[in-house]
Amino acid sequence: MAAIASAPVVPPSAWAKPAAAARKYSPWAIALTVTMATFMELLDTSISNVSLPHIAGGLGTSYDESTWVLTSYLVANAVILPMRLGSAAYSDASATT
């Protein structure tokens, strides 16, 4: 019993906190960010679709050939978007929701 009483007392404020507990993410902020990013991607795609006749006229190609511009844009976004999130940022954000 004497060994327990002589142990140093560490206040709770000095206890080490895990890294995940130290960071606070608001689920609403994450949802708003993802929603805004999705909206911007939809807006960019719509603008690209509207500009296809102008692209075809400016390049002197047919409408069918100019759709390759939009296809390339969509494929590039599908490849780059997951890279932009990053594995650490994605796992941190998904762990809090």
What can you tell me about this protein's structure?
There is one protein chain. With 97 residues, the protein is an all-alpha fold. The protein has a domain at 39-97. The protein has six helices and no strands. The protein has helices spanning 2-5, 19-22, 27-50, 52-59, 63-85, 87-96. Helix 4 (52-59) packs across helix 5. The longest helix is centred in the middle third of the chain and has 24 residues, at 27-50. The protein starts with a helix and ends with a helix.
Summarize the model shown.
This protein is mainly α and 97 residues long. Helices cover 75% and strands 0% of the residues.
* Element order: H for helix, E for strand: HHHHHH
Q: Percent of residues in beta strands?
A: under 5%
Low-confidence stretches: none
Radius of gyration: 26 Å
Q: Main β-sheet, in a few words? A: none
Tally of strands? 0
Contiguous helical run count: 6
Q: What's the helical proportion of residues?
A: over 70%
The rough form would be described as rod-shaped
Mean pLDDT: 75
Q: Pairing-aware structural class of the strands and helices?
A: mainly alpha
How many angstroms does the end-to-end distance come to? 45 Å
